[in-house]
Amino acid sequence: MKRLRELEEKLGYTFQHPQYIQTALTHSSYANEVRGGEKSNERLEFLGDSILGAVVADYIFRNCTSMPEGELTKLKASLVCEKALCGFSRELGVGDYLRLSRGEQNSGGRTRSSILADAFEAIIAAIYLDGGMEEARKFILRFTVPLMNAPRPKAFRDYKTVLQEIVQQNPEEHIEYVLVGESGPDHNKHFVMEVHLNHNVIGKGGGHSKKEAEQQAAREALELMGY
Length: 227
Known about the structure:
It catalyses: Endonucleolytic cleavage to 5'-phosphomonoester. Its main location: cytoplasm. The chain has eleven helices and three strands. Strand 2 (190-197) and strand 3 (200-207) form a beta hairpin. Helix 4 runs antiparallel to helix 5 (69-80), helix 4 (42-63) packs across helix 8 (113-131) and helix 4 (42-63) packs across helix 9. It is globular and about 55 Å long. It has helices spanning 2-11, 19-24, 28-34, 42-63, 69-80, 82-92, 102-106, 113-131, 133-149, 159-167, 210-224, and strands spanning 175-183, 190-197, 200-207. Strands 1-2-3 form a three-stranded antiparallel sheet, with helices on one face.
């Protein structure tokens, strides 16, 4: 309970149903290791990702009234990308509270970017389920608004967003990311993704998370297209 109180103080939110935050902090490696009916945070991550995207999109739409659609897309991508979410988790010290398997913990899971980013999305969902959309919105904007107002490096590039913007110029074109490879133990997974344009492979990439692999696949596609 003391650990929960510590985390709640950092989050700025007190849970009525502590099981939500407990699940949000439970990595799949831990759930698989204990095998006692523990749920991992993967489903919460899915929900939190959608809530995060909607809240950020709504905020920048209402507050960046002179920004064209392409710039809005890039700004949103910079606020919800793995790098940003990992930074938010590190600011909160989320890694100290994660429930990981022994193998994941020993291999540096508490500081792994993909795990921290996923946990942040799961925490968003936990707050939403426990306290509603307004509480989740306040939590999200507490982190994203200062980042939005901070100077960003001009070199920032979200390859998936850039590729999507190029392709969507033709409404008949369709992009899809397909998982074609997965290897390694739970604490050190490697994923391989292909990006398909109208069912044709135009890029391939790998990484320690699916999101990272998708970015690398999009990067290769852009390079092959001459961008």
